[in-house]
């Protein structure tokens, strides 16, 4: 199999290394030709002069890890060329772009997989299995959080889509994935503390949302750009018979104030380290999908549903009211 990779930044470079061990040939390209050359030389893989040139490189599939603005055009172009495509979230920068891209993909017969890596994290998968088995009884509460050790560069914030769309969207997808339930209503709030760029961009540096699921379960999602203790992603599922927690291990950045759990190792520094195994697993699933011609393990429709939740949360945060998903659905 010959797989093209568009974009070799932080995530893309890691994807290139993973793909090298999964398929016979990898071809990388980037808007920065020097960066593509450096990655290709380091890994011993092929290189195209540009992302555009990838489409003439005899590919069997395409992986998209470019900046967000290029996601939708590359997905549509790949589908039109009959190439199965893996795209990092989000499918597009906004809701309208996501819907338009799905319309272009829907009737193509070409498989598209979106990169929500938590669906391939062993802890999240085990929590999902615990819910589906009935071992937890009926679920009443889910708590999910994503805490970054430090904000991204200031220049990224105005183009990020905001905390709920850029960061918490992973939690929204994880809640849906683990519980198997749909979100019906949200109530969200945010705080513009820290760097001035958050307020200047109309964004928030810390946010929380209460999600009501279609069976009455409540999910609480929290996120912050300022968690100096370290990168922290956890999810708790609490039921009438039992409960489980994801992400509580020797590297969870928690400092107990008394007797209790004490991490033994250094905290995770970021998402690439915390989810290294999940990133590799989702690409293995993509390669298996291409080889077998099977359905996508994370189709773009799933990304749209998580985006609806993020959109509702941002409206709720700005307008200080509860918002139903039907209000934003199109």
Brief synopsis:
The chain has helices at 10-20, 33-43, 71-80, 95-106, 122-133, 163-179, 196-200, 271-274, 276-292, 300-319, 325-328; strands at residues 2-6, 25-29, 46-47, 61-64, 85-88, 112-115, 139-147, 183-191, 206-213, 218-224, 232-239, 243-246, 323-324.
Explained architecture:
This protein has 330 residues and is an alpha/beta fold. The chain has 11 helices and 13 strands. It has helices at 10-20, 33-43, 71-80, 95-106, 122-133, 163-179, 196-200, 271-274, 276-292, 300-319, 325-328, and strands at 2-6, 25-29, 46-47, 61-64, 85-88, 112-115, 139-147, 183-191, 206-213, 218-224, 232-239, 243-246, 323-324. The strands form 2 sheets. Strands 12-11-7-10-9-8-13 form a 7-stranded mixed sheet. A 6-stranded parallel sheet has the order 3-2-1-4-5-6, sandwiched between helices. It is globular, with a radius of gyration of 20 Å. The model has no long low-confidence stretch (mean pLDDT 96).
Give descriptors for this structure.
330 residues; Rossmann fold; Dihydrodipicolinate Reductase, domain 2; 2 domains; 37% helix; globular; NAD(P)-bd_dom_sf; GFO_IDH_MocA-like_dom
| Helix content class | 25-40%
E-strand count: 13
Radius of gyration: 20 Å
Largest sheet: 7 strands, mixed
Number of helices: 11
CATH architecture of the largest domain, by name, is: 2-Layer Sandwich
- The number of domains is 2
Output the structural class. Answer: alpha/beta
Strand order of the largest sheet: 12-11-7-10-9-8-13
Termini separation: 38 Å
List low-confidence stretches.
none
What is the CATH level 1 assignment of the largest domain? Alpha Beta
CATH superfamily of the largest domain: Dihydrodipicolinate Reductase, domain 2
**Mean pLDDT across every amino acid position:** 96
CATH fold group of the largest domain = Dihydrodipicolinate Reductase, domain 2
Q: Secondary-structure element sequence?
A: EHEHEEHEHEHEHEHEEEEHHHEH
Shape: globular
